[in-house]
Design a protein that fits this description.
single chain; about 290 residues; alpha+beta; Ubiquitin-like (UB roll); Methane Monooxygenase Hydroxylase, Chain G, domain 1; 5-stranded mixed β-sheet; two-stranded antiparallel ribbon; about 40% helix; about 15% strand
């Protein structure tokens, strides 16, 4: 662990020296993009150049938005060191363009269940002559004198109901429908915005598109390559979710197949929009 920390520190000092030696003393765009490893897949995540110092918090928010993970569950690791302080800039952590970080999704912490330490009052048998069958004991709370009228007893706390048994088929169907809902309600509106922004651009030769959208809801030409990559990664991640769902029944198999076809249709539309942008609208890849 000490060796890893020394390596990170040396990398940071080396980056600072190289930037100073070449006349780059900071400013917007210091870290424009990084590589994020999630499982066995590698993704390129571009960072918004809206502030002079890009902090770790901005990177965590961008990664959370790209992968659909809540920010409080995003854990980033660089050279074996967990990046924790959101107030520190990426340059201070030693990151630069193309740095590879590892994404881990942590499980939310659950509060421990409260134990019920209340106990029912102990009862003893106290014979009450003249009531019921002669000689049969009548039950009364301990410590109450015999023959004293008893107040009605409060009902004891009911036992917790048994948890219903898990139904794997219902859980798998629920997971598939959650993927379909996210695609239709979250990703599809961004796909429509992507297509409309491309259609609204005038034709131009590659690299010569200078028009700016008149509608504030349209994507600027410089951001269209990023929107293309973002949509592709979003849809690919939803396909990975479906791959983890076993097809154990006919209904699960049918709904999963239909959802896969819907996602593939969206991916075809993303590719078609990018083809139009790159061939007819003068948009070039920014990587």
């Amino acid at each position: 662990m000490l060796g890893l920390r020394l390596a990170v520190n040396m990398s940071w000092f080396s980056n600072q020296w190289n930037r100073w030696n070449h006349g780059d003393h900071g400013g917007p765009g210091d870290v424009a993009w990084v590589e994020v490893q999630y499982g066995r897949q590698m993704y390129q995540v571009r960072l918004p150049q809206e502030s002079p110092r890009i902090l770790l918090g901005a990177l965590r928010q961008e990664v959370g938005a790209v992968f659909g993970v809540p920010v409080d569950r995003v854990k980033l690791t660089f050279h074996g060191i967990v990046l924790k302080d959101d107030r520190i800039s990426l340059l201070e952590y030693g990151l630069s363009n193309g740095s590879r970080i590892v994404l881990t999704v942590v499980e939310p912490q659950r509060a421990p269940a409260k134990k019920n330490n209340r106990q029912a009052p102990e009862v003893v048998a106290v014979p009450q002559p003249g009531e019921g069958t002669q000689g049969a004991p009548q039950w009364a709370p301990q410590g109450v004198p015999q023959g004293v009228p008893q107040a009605p007893q409060a009902p004891t706390q009911a036992q917790e109901p048994l948890q219903p048994q898990r139904n794997p088929e219902e859980e798998h169907l629920k997971a598939i429908r959650a993927v379909l809902w996210h695609c239709n309600q979250v990703i599809y509106p961004e796909l429509l915005q992507f297509e409309k922004s491309i259609d609204a651009l005038p034709n131009a030769r590659p690299g010569e598109q200078t028009a700016e959208p008149k509608d504030v809801n349209m994507i600027p030409p410089a951001r269209i390559p990023y929107a293309h990559r973002k949509l592709g990664e979003y849809l690919l991640r939803e396909l990975f979710k479906l791959d983890d769902i076993p097809s154990d029944t006919d209904q699960v198999r049918t709904e999963r197949k239909q959802t896969v076809r819907q996602i593939q249709n969206y991916m075809d539309r993303v590719d078609a929009g990018w083809s139009t942008a790159s061939k007819s609208k003068g948009i070039v890849n920014d990587i």
